[in-house]
């Protein structure tokens, strides 16, 4: 899985009270607001186990997942048409190139989605509500941490 700078963040995995895999991410003081809520993932072509590790940033304002072009180009996935993307604070709708990709989560499970493709300077993946619908999320600002429960 993706290596995360241990001086900035501590990741603990476990089981939630209802029996689902979960991950608690605790940041060194101040780094949560700097880094955003990110979790380690792997991306592969659908049906494959060989792929690329990346960090996924949780984005509750995004209806769909958008992946950085530099990552998807390394996987050599075919274009699968387009998807529409609308920023939460905007009326502008944008058509993005789309590709089918399997997103592998730290609980060992994966979900295949049709993701939009965009070019970002410092983001690997924006995890939208198409994937967030399978998770529960708890943000704890005073403790500089968040918990993600993988409910699938």
Radius of gyration, CA atoms, in whole angstroms:
15 Å
CATH fold annotation: Cathepsin D, subunit A, domain 1
Order of helices and strands: EEHEEEHEEEEHEE
Please, how many helices?
3
Q: The biggest beta sheet, please?
A: 6 strands, mixed, barrel
CATH class label: Mainly Beta
Q: Give the CA-CA distance, first to last residue.
A: 19 Å
- What would the principal axes of the Cα set say about the shape? globular
Uncertain segments: 1-6
Q: Strand order of the main beta sheet, please?
A: 3-4-9-5-8-7
Structural class: mainly beta
Number of strands: 11
Q: Strand fraction band?
A: over 45%
Summed over residues and divided by their number, the pLDDT gives a mean of 83
What layout of secondary structure does this protein have?
Elements: E1 9-15, E2 21-27, H1 31-35, E3 38-44, E4 52-58, E5 66-68, H2 69-75, E6 82-86, E7 93-104, E8 110-118, E9 125-127, H3 129-132, E10 135-140, E11 145-150
Parallel strand pairs: 4-9, 5-8
Antiparallel strand pairs: 1-2, 2-11, 3-4, 3-7, 5-9, 6-7, 7-8, 10-11
List keywords for this structure.
disordered N terminus, mainly beta, four-stranded antiparallel sheet, single chain, Cathepsin D, subunit A, domain 1, 152 residues, six-stranded mixed β-barrel
Structure description:
With 152 residues, this protein is mainly β. It has one domain (9-150): Acid Proteases (Cathepsin D, subunit A, domain 1). It contains 3 helices and 11 strands, in the order E-E-H-E-E-E-H-E-E-E-E-H-E-E. The radius of gyration is 15 Å and the shape is globular. Mean pLDDT is 83; it is low at 1-6.
């Amino acid at each position: 899985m993706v290596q995360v700078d241990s001086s900035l963040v501590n990741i603990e995995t476990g089981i939630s009270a209802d029996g689902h895999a979960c991950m608690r991410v605790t940041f060194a003081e101040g780094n949560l607001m700097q880094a955003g809520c990110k979790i380690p993932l792997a991306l592969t072509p659908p049906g494959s186990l060989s792929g690329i590790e990346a960090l996924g940033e949780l984005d509750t304002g995004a209806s769909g997942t958008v992946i950085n072009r530099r990552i998807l180009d390394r996987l050599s996935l075919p274009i699968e048409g387009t998807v529409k993307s609308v920023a939460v604070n905007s009326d502008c709708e944008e058509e993005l190139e789309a590709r089918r990709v399997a997103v592998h989560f730290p609980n060992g499970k994966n979900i295949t989605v049709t993701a939009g493709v965009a070019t970002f300077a410092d983001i690997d993946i924006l995890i939208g509500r198409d994937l967030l619908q399978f998770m529960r999320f708890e943000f704890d600002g005073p403790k500089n941490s968040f918990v993600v429960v993988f409910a699938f």
